[in-house]
Each structure stands twice: as C-alpha cells, then as structure tokens.
Amino acid sequence: MTIEITANDPATRLVMRGAFTIANVTEVERQLVTINTESPVHAELGGIDRIDTSGAWVLATLRKRLELAGQSLEISGASEQVESLLHTVADALPEQDTVEVERITLTDRVEAVGRSVTRSTLFLFALTGYLGLFLAQLARAVRHPSEFRMTALVHHCEDVGLRAVPIVALMSFLIGVVLAFQGSTQLRQFGAEVFVVDLLAISILRELGILLTSIIVAGRTASAFTAAIGSMKMREEIDAMRTLGLDPAMTLFVPRILALILMLPILGLVANVMGLFGGGLMAWIDLGISPAMFITRLVEGTDVSHVLVGMIKAPVFAIIIGVVGCHAGMQVQSNAESLGRMTSNAVVTAIFAVIVADAVFSIFFAQIGF
User: Fold this and answer.
1) Which of 127, 135, 121, 137 is nearest to 324 (CA)?
2) 180 contacts 282 by C-beta, under 8 angstroms
3) Which of 238, 321, 340, 368 gives the lowest tally of CB atoms within 10 Å of its CB?
C-alpha cells in the first residue's frame, strides 16, 4: 500500500495504490490524520486493487472530518466495488446526536422548589396516615384482645430490645468516657474538675443517652422493618394475607411499633447507666474522683427532671422509627433495587426525623423551663 499526499493550492491531492485492508489500516490512518482540513481533498483511488470495510471506514471518517471543517472529499477513479463499499460503510456510520443544553431559568428553579415541597408534604401526610392506622389498629386490639398477636410482640421485643443491648451499652460507655475526658481537660483549666459530674449527668441523661440510642435503633431496626415487610411485599405475601382475611396493619405494624415503644425506654435506661459508668470510670482515672464522691455529687447535683426529659422522648422516637420503617417497607416494588433503595431511605429518614424531633423537644422544654 502506497500513499502520496500533495498539498496543492486549490486542493490537497491524495493518491492511493495497492491493497487497502485491515493489515495496513493503522499506518494509513496515521498518515491521513496529517492532512490539512483547511482545503478540500481530491482522492484518486484508481490504483486500489482491493479494499475491505476497515479501509472504507478510514476514508468515510476522513470525509466526515473534512465536512465538519467545511471542506469536502472528492473521489475519482474508484471501481464499482470500491464505490459500493464506501457508500455502504458511510451509510452505516452512526450519527452523532446533538444534545441541546437547556438553560435553567428562574421559573424552572421555582418549579423545582415547589415540586420538592409538594413531595415532602405528601410524604408527611403518608407518614401521618400510617400513624393513624397504627393507632386505630392498636385501639382495635384493646377492644378485641383475641386479634392481637402476643407471640409476634415478644419476638420483636427480643429482636429490637434484647439483641440491641450490647451495641447500645458499648456505645454509651465509650461516649461517657469521651465526655469525661474532654470535660476534665477543659474544666481543669479553671479548677472546676468536680463539675464534670454535672456535665456527664445533664448531657447523658437529658440528651445524648436517648438520642444516640434512638439513632442506633433507627439504623438497626428501621432497616430491618423495611427489609422484612418489603420482602413480603415482593413475594406477594401481603396480598395473600389480605386474601385470607388478615389485616397487614394488625399483623405486621402493631407488634413491631409496639415492641419499639416498650423497648426503647429500657434501652435508654441502659444507655444512661453505661454512659454514667464510663464517665465515672474516666473521672476516677483522670481526675481522681472516687466512685463514692461521683455518686454523691451525681445524686446531689442532678435533678430527676433530666431523667424524665429523656424518658419522655423515648416513646415518641420509637413511634417515629417504627412508622418510617413500616411505611418504607410498604413502598417496595417488585424488584431488589427498590428494596435496597427503600431500606436506605428508611434509615436516613428515621435518623433525620429523630434528630429533628429531639431539637423540637429541646426548644419546647427550654420554653416551659423544664
């Protein structure tokens, strides 16, 4: 295969001879890339005795490159076989889709904000509906105890409460250690090391104990509720339950949410005890505050209202986590991707809702002076 490229004034002259096949297409393409696209090209292909689709693709690509630059490729002397193959390959080349970039106007932004607000409002209405459904079925279970599934409640109490004790206790112990260490470092500068007990008592009993416990339970239990109910929905077990005359709300929602309401305060108490134990241990090691002095200061300087504030939050947080998990499970479609997406959404939504509710409680108790 020989190529002659001559840059003339009106047009570039290209003469090709020999066999233009895949064996030499790389070298030919390397030479054709050097052709200047500022002038048209006249290709003489009379000397080509054999060509395949790879050679035709190189020539078609050269023609397209010249056309994009506003020039043309004129072919002369080609045999009928070469002409036919060139036309076939040129017609088969994919057309590049031109994507028009739409300009985002102020109206589009306002519309996007409106749609987000509408979706959020509808989501809150849906959660409120599931809360009402739970309360209605709970009242029905009180009126008709025979319809309530005690075995399911005990099972979920074990799963939600007993199995969560180790991770809650360890987390609270470490939080107490960190709070005592950091608090002692700061209070030592003012000679007020003994007030680290008050710091631990207020922060753990009033806020961190139940809040961090709820966050752990939200990540552990909300995902479990969504996965269990979503899997049943994927396998059409919920439709089968309705066919058998079983109410999914009574069978699935009430035992799970009620187990959370019963177990979360207990887990909160475990977190409080372990947090104070970890803080007292660190205060003994770092500040020399003996356990007897720690307990005395804790009893004298801590009001029981701090414990009540934390315990009042627990049932509300439990209802939020349970309702979010059950609602997300019922939104699962008939594919695994939907199950994974709704499980992740349930965890994020439950944690976010718990933190927002805790902020609302803090403002409320501050306003009433409790």
Assistant:
1) 127
2) yes
3) 368
- The confidence score (pLDDT) of residue 89 equals 82
- Strands across the sheet containing 12-20: 2-7, 12-20, 41-51, 73-76
**215 vs 321: CA distance, rounded Å:** 9
- Tokens 């490229």 correspond to 5
Tally the residues of the chain: 370
**CA–CA separation, 185 and 207 (whole Å):** 21
DSSP 8-state assignment for residue 79: -
Query: Residue 303 carries which side chain, given as an amino acid letter?
Result: D
CA-based R_g, the chain, Å: 37
pLDDT mean across residues, the chain: 86
Six token digits for residue 205: 């009993």
Distance CA 317, CA 137 (A): 20
Choose among 179, 358, 163: nearest CA to 267.
Answer: 163
What mean pLDDT do residues 330-342 have?
87
User: Cα(247)–Cα(249) distance, rounded to whole angstroms?
Assistant: 5
Q: Which of 283, 275, 319 is nearest to 128 (CA)?
A: 319
Task: Indicate the DSSP class of residue 98.
Answer: -
366 HSE (CA, 13 A, CB side): 7
How far lies 226's CA from each of 104, 219, 249, 341, in Å?
A: 37, 11, 14, 10
- Burial of residue 29 (number of CB atoms within 10 Å: 0-12, 13-18, 19+): middle
Give dist(CA 264, CA 267) in Å, integer: 5
User: What CA–CA distances, in Å, run from 87 to 59, 64, 153?
Assistant: 11, 13, 75
Bridge partners for 17 per DSSP: 2, 47
Q: Please determine, for residue 134, whether its predicted confidence score (pLDDT) is greater than 70.
A: yes
State the average pLDDT over residues 22-35: 81
Q: What is the pLDDT of residues 224-281, one digit of tens each?
A: 999 999 999 888 888 888 888 888 889 889 999 999 999 999 999 999 999 999 988 8
Q: State the Cα–Cα distance between residues 370 and 365, nearest whole angstrom.
A: 5
Residue 235 φ then ψ, to 5° = -85, 10
